[in-house]
Design a protein that fits this description.
Elements lengths: L10 H27 L3 H17 L3 H13 L4 H14 L3 H14 L5 H12 L3 H14 L4 H13 L3 H14 L4 H13 L3 H14 L6 H9 L1
């Protein structure tokens, strides 16, 4: 009997066959690796935003601003980028620039409270009573019970001798915070200057019952009783 022995595949043919079998695997691996190294738009934006925050934390406001600008240019949210720029400029005490950005942010998001509060903060830092009252009015449009805004508007009206408006705003504060002695004093003096001496007398007495040493409280009571 003659036994036929099958010829073994040639090395080159075997290698070629193996490569053909591995091609789909290699292609899949390459695609997976490419996807792993490619960053999404959101990831790139997040990195820019975090870079801006880190730069600010490290005291480099110019880099923080530059990164915020890059974030916007890369397709980031315009409102957020504008608010970021406003905050950084505020930190640098560039109040005019900060205010400009806050106003722009208001235009982008008409019902956002943060830019209005930003304008109030700038005015308060500058000791701008009229500016604070104006910004406070903007805040009260969206949040009628905001303490800071009510007090700013009340004080601005008081300084402008609009005692009716001042008293109304101080009473709004007292409705929310009956223990607030500053609002109580403001309401008492507003009542006095509008000729409501009985109301003023009661308010001054209440103020003295909370703090006998409160500035001008005794003088106010004496004036209201005259």
């Amino acid at each position: 009997m003659v036994v036929k022995i099958a010829a073994e595949p040639q090395p080159k043919a075997a290698m070629k066959r193996t490569l053909l079998l591995l091609l789909p695997v290699i292609a899949f691996a390459a695609g997976t690796s490419d996807q792993a190294t490619r960053k999404s738009k959101e990831e790139m934006l997040g990195e820019l935003w975090q870079a801006s925050l880190s730069a600010e934390t490290n005291g480099d406001s110019d880099v923080a601003l530059a990164k915020a600008a890059e974030y916007l240019k890369a397709g980031g949210d315009a409102y957020l980028a504008t608010m970021r720029a406003a905050w950084i400029q505020y930190g640098k005490k560039n109040y005019d620039e900060a205010a400009r950005h806050y106003v722009n942010a208001m235009r982008l998001q008409g019902i956002a409270l943060s830019p209005r509060l930003g304008l109030l903060t700038i005015a308060e830092d500058k000791h701008d009573v009229a500016g604070a009252a104006k910004a406070g009015d903007l805040v009260l449009v969206l949040e009628p019970t905001n303490y800071r805004a009510l007090m700013a508007v009340a004080w601005g009206a008081f300084q402008a001798k609009d005692y009716h408006k001042a008293g109304a705003r101080y009473h709004c504060v007292m409705a929310e915070y009956p223990e607030d002695m500053d609002a109580l004093s403001g309401a008492a003096w507003s009542a006095y200057y509008t000729g409501q001496k009985m109301e003023a007398k009661g308010l001054f007495r209440r103020l003295i019952s909370l703090n006998p040493s409160y500035p001008y409280a005794r003088q106010g009571l004496a004036a209201a009783q005259y």
